[in-house]
Amino acid sequence: MPRIKVEVDGVTYEDDVEPRLLLVHYLRERLGKVGTPIGCDTSNCGACTVLLDGTSVKSCSVLAVQADDHEITTIEGLGIAGKLHPMQRAFHEEHALQCGFCTPGMIMASIDLLRENADPSEDEIREGLEGNLCRCTGYQNIVRAVRHAADDMRHNGGTASAGHSAAQEATHE
């Protein structure tokens, strides 16, 4: 069985994994990162989106062995010292969720979008999030939240990258 070493939310893990184990199942079942939902298992909905070396990926379409020697950030790894990441705060303030099932993936994809384009237009936001589905909203508040976070991050020195608390800087085997 292959052995992988991954950094997840600032913590290093080393595990033996089945070669066919999907990253989403590794995160949820082995590491307890249940904030990353399993939506469709076909990469259509984007609910399971995480950041792999800062780039958004649908974790149901990545094998855990492909994440070997990479850094993964989940929704649980955002923010610093218990404070919400600017994108999380914007989603809350703009009421950009209803049932919340798609929210982790939307937030992670939005962070990656702002990493690539710090000041996206409404159309660019909609295009950038087209691989993430929401069955409850009309997307208007989601687009508003991304604009809000973009403005906040540009004007208040926020960052589009994920943060990890000092408590997360441990190594687990």
Which structural category fits the helices and strands? Answer: alpha/beta
Spatial strand arrangement across the major sheet = 4-3-5-1-2-6
Q: Kindly report the average pLDDT value.
A: 91
Shape: globular
Helix content percent band: 25-40%
Number of helices: 5
Secondary-structure element pattern, one letter each: EEHEEEHHHHE
Radius of gyration over all CA atoms, rounded: 16 Å
Number of distinct beta strands: 6
Largest sheet: 6 strands, mixed
Beta-strand content estimate: 5-15%
Distance between the termini: 16 Å
Uncertain regions: pLDDT < 50 for 5+ in a row? 164-171
Walk me through the structure.
With 173 residues, the protein is an alpha/beta fold. The protein has helices at residues 23-30, 86-93, 103-116, 122-128, 140-155, and strands at 3-8, 11-16, 49-52, 55-58, 71-73, 171-172. Strands 4-3-5-1-2-6 form a six-stranded mixed sheet, with helices on one face. The protein is globular. Residues 164-171 have low confidence and may be disordered.
Short description:
This protein has 173 residues and is α/β, with parallel strands linked by helices. Helices cover 31% and strands 14% of the residues. It has a 6-stranded mixed β-sheet with strand order 4-3-5-1-2-6, with helices on one face.
